[in-house]
């Protein structure tokens, strides 16, 4: 029986793993898919020999004491792959661990195909890792066309057709529950993020933004996404409720679709907003020293993918001390109250959406991996 090892180390990687596994099994239900997976990967038909929780670490203070455990994990996985000899190894995101794992596999003599699904962002920073991709990987499957071009131009084998969100967002609709609850309201969606860091550094800013929005007769609604950990969801729910604001516990993408505009933490949510053709004010707050270090390391002007894709600032980026409620409100009103500007930005969002491709990315990944 053919078998493919699949590894992911965080929630987003597990979502991609789930889609990939599901599409592989549609093509050939007899392939064994196993490795380090989360609930999505298992639900789609994969076998989790290790849980993706092993790599769910955030911040230096968590990572340093975990280093011996990470090296043991790498050693155990390497030995199991060498012993089991899968036809292919598919590593998803989590580049620091997966680059190390691929190098270890090649040193131990694994000569099967190794594929990097969602490779590291070498186009933005740490470009030196290109040599690892060329040396250890047979193929990279990036999320964006500009990443694909960068990899090809640097001698890395890469294939691309679409971003998986294009297919995932095709069926997004506003539910009857949403319509009943928020009928005829001027909603602004507030997206505080999904990680502890996001909540700690951004929720207070967004709560104060909500106060200003309410004064302007908008209805600020906070997203409490279904994927949030239980303790984080409880905290977010309580703080929003105690501040007197509304929240939505369905999919964040439904909330954005039902809103006039969005304000929230930089990340995948900005790509979702663009695909839903919703304007967004992107914020990101961090310690000043961290920001100064990042500015030295990162080689791109913008942090938001829609801005990088379109080559212009379609989404205002308010970073660090600029992430102020008054500035967020000002950017939202500049868009909502200026018909010419609104039309111009909406056209740019449509352009960005076209640059995301137009097929089922997970199906494409499955076909490409099997063709190897």
Widest β-sheet, arrangement of strands: 3-2-1-4-5-6
**Strand portion:** 15-25%
Name the shape in a single word: globular
Q: What order do the helices and strands follow?
A: EHEHEHEHEHEHHHEHEHEHEHEHHEHHH
Give the helix proportion (percent range): 40-55%
Termini Cα gap: 16 Å
Q: What is the number of beta strands? A: 12
The Cα radius of gyration reads 21 Å
Main sheet overview = 6 strands, parallel
The overall average pLDDT, rounded, is: 91
Structural class: alpha/beta
Uncertain segments are none
Count the helices. How many?
17
What does this 3D model show about the protein?
It is a single chain. The protein is α/β, with parallel strands linked by helices and 372 residues long. 51% of the residues lie in helices and 15% in strands. The protein has 17 helices and 12 strands. The protein has helices at 11-27, 39-43, 60-84, 95-107, 130-136, 145-153, 164-168, 176-182, 196-215, 230-242, 252-257, 268-275, 288-297, 305-310, 325-336, 339-354, 361-371; strands spanning 3-8, 32-37, 47-51, 88-92, 113-117, 139-141, 187-191, 219-223, 246-248, 261-265, 280-284, 317-319. The strands form 2 sheets. The protein has a 6-stranded parallel sheet with strand order 3-2-1-4-5-6, with helices on both faces. A 6-stranded parallel sheet has the order 9-8-7-10-11-12, with helices on both faces. Helix 12 (268-275) links the parallel strand 10 and strand 11.
């Amino acid at each position: 029986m053919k078998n493919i090892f699949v590894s992911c180390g965080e929630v987003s990687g597990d979502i991609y793993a789930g889609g990939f596994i599901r599409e592989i099994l549609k093509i050939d239900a007899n392939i064994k898919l196993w490795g380090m997976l989360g609930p999505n990967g298992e639900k789609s038909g994969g076998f989790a020999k290790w849980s993706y929780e092993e790599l769910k670490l955030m911040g230096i203070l968590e990572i340093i004491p975990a280093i011996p455990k990470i090296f043991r994990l790498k050693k155990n996985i390497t030995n199991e792959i060498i012993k089991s000899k899968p036809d292919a190894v598919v590593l998803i995101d989590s580049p620091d661990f997966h680059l190390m794992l691929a190098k270890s596999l090649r040193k131990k003599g694994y000569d099967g195909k190794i594929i990097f699904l969602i490779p590291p962002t070498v186009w933005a920073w740490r470009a030196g890792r290109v040599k690892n991709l060329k040396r250890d990987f047979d193929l990279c499957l990036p999320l964006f066309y500009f990443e694909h071009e960068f990899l090809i131009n640097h001698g890395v084998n890469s294939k691309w057709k679409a971003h998986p969100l294009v297919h995932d967002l095709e069926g997004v609709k506003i539910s009857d529950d949403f319509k009943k609850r928020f009928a005829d309201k001027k909603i602004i969606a507030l997206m505080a993020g999904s990680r502890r860091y996001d909540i700690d550094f951004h929720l207070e800013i967004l709560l104060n933004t909500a106060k200003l929005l309410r004064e302007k007769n908008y209805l600020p609604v906070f997203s409490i996404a279904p994927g949030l950990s239980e303790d984080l969801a409880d905290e977010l729910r309580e703080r929003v409720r105690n501040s007197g604001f509304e929240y939505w516990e369905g999919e964040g993408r439904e909330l954005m679709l039902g809103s006039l505009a969005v304000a929230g933490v930089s990340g995948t949510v900005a790509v979702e907003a663009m695909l839903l053709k919703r304007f967004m004010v992107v914020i990101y707050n961090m310690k000043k020293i961290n920001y100064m270090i990042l500015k030295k390391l990162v080689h791109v002007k913008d942090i938001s993918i829609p801005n990088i894709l379109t080559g212009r600032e379609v989404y205002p980026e308010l970073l660090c001390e600029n992430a102020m409620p008054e500035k967020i409100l000002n950017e939202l009103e500049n868009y909502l109250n200026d018909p010419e500007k609104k039309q111009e930005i909406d056209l740019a969002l449509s352009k960005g959406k076209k640059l995301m491709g137009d097929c089922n990315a997970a199906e494409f990944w499955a076909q490409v991996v099997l063709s190897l």
